[in-house]
Amino acid sequence: MSAVERVTASLNTYRALPKVELHRHLEGSLRLDTMLDIATQHGITIPADVLRLSTLVQIQEEDKLTFQNFLSKFNTLRLFYRSPDVIHRITREAIEDAAKDNVKYMELRFTPVALSRAERFPLHDVIDWVISSAKEASEKHGVIVRLIASVNRHESAELAEQVAWLAADHVKDGLVALDLAGNEADFPSQPFYGIFKEAKQAGLHVTIHAGEWGPAYNVSEAIEEIGAERIGHGVRVMEDESIVKLARERQTAFEVCITSNYQSGIFESLETHPLTQMLDAGLNVTINTDDPSISRITLSHEYYTACEDLKMPQTILKQRIVAAAKASFIEETEKEKLVKQLEKDLKL
Ligand code: ADE
Ligand code: ZN
Fold first, then answer.
1. Most exposed residue of 256, 276, 293, 342, measured as fewest CB within 10 angstroms of its CB?
2. Please, which residues have CB within 8 angstroms of residue 96's CB and are 6 or more apart in sequence?
């Protein structure tokens, strides 16, 4: 077997696994072909060939691996949200792509403010469009989907508050949580404390991007001040033992996204990613994609990277898939069924 054949054969074993995705952004999941289609239909002036478009919306080998460069891809992506049809289409396709990768349960997060910006769509319409397409695609492709509304810390707290209230009205439609995302290095989460507290009281779950581009302290702040049940990334928690202890005691789930962490410049190489140290420290780690289109990956690739590059044993991977289901924001009765089905299929 050649080296390429070995990688392919190995990747296929990860493709075959039933998967759970807790951290995937809709805006980071657009197909390149779809972007070209939308550009043609709506007269958007972007490079008309796939390779040149790719440089604007996906990480390239020659790119500087910084979070600023990573976030800059979303600026181009915001040009595409030109019609309700576009928003319906990208939502359906994101779920179809997950189904093809054997994802059984996915929490897809979306940023209403980003989707509404280009055409000034009302936030409530954007939320309705994503909910209805997610429901349709979930049934068609047999993936259980729950939605998370994201707000960015580098954008207005007033808009975030509007999103939180609208989201709270749609918990029964499967919009189950609120997420704080965006530029963690330069923008504090303090202006959002009250919004998240009220969102939680209104029945939404809470997950916070923290300890990704900001220090370990942000993880404890997310848990203790904002009421985060889960942490987006949180990999820099390893810089402070007392915060590792706090997260271990609470069994706070970490939504780790290995490739995204490397591409956004947190670690110098994939091999220096602290995934296995986090596991050894007893943290409740899950494995996710973040932005599969920007990073040019699938969840299968992330499972491959965790086991083949970072040497996480496959039995641990299977346990982490079940751990992700247990940490999910699905309703308790559905969660029990999901966990049982995964344990059976993974032979645990
Ligand atoms: N939005 C999309 N991807 C993100 C990330 N990795 N961190 C913060 N905000 C994001
Ligand atoms: Zn993210």
1. 276
2. 137, 140, 141
